[in-house]
Amino acid sequence: MFKYGKTSQNAISAMSHLAEVYPVEGRLSSQDIALKRNLPKQLVAKILVVLSQANLVSSVPGPGGGYWLRKPPSEISLLAIVSLFEKGGDMLMCPFGPDWCGNGDPCPLHDQLVQLNEQMNRFLSETTLDVFARGEVSLPSGG
């Protein structure tokens, strides 16, 4: 199962803002995104570099530059984002310790953990940034 860590959460947060403004507002600076999502600017800048290298965002440097989604929000899954920041193959560890399940009888939670893993993977792969672009979520106001 993906360990849906802090960096992945921050990357989804940054990308959700780019999806919200797609394509109306055009380019946003890392500072614009950081301010809107209450994230450290340097962290957002580093995340955007990784997302750019993965061809999920495009960018133009300098004054008047910024970042924007390279594809429509409906074509970018949460899995595409999360997989950039998480180790592939990181599974939820068996409560009996590493290498228990798969080397004999499975632990009492094995089936439930496999099901949880499948649900998380399905959620991440089937959910796209389009949910943010369509305004289907209620985001808190404030700043």
From TrEMBL:
<dbReference type="InterPro" id="IPR036390">
    <property type="entry name" value="WH_DNA-bd_sf"/>
</dbReference>
<dbReference type="InterPro" id="IPR036388">
    <property type="entry name" value="WH-like_DNA-bd_sf"/>
</dbReference>
<dbReference type="GO" id="GO:0003700">
    <property type="term" value="F:DNA-binding transcription factor activity"/>
</dbReference>
<dbReference type="Pfam" id="PF02082">
    <property type="entry name" value="Rrf2"/>
</dbReference>
<dbReference type="GO" id="GO:0005829">
    <property type="term" value="C:cytosol"/>
</dbReference>
<protein>
    <submittedName>
        <fullName>Rrf2 family transcriptional regulator</fullName>
    </submittedName>
</protein>
<dbReference type="InterPro" id="IPR000944">
    <property type="entry name" value="Tscrpt_reg_Rrf2"/>
</dbReference>
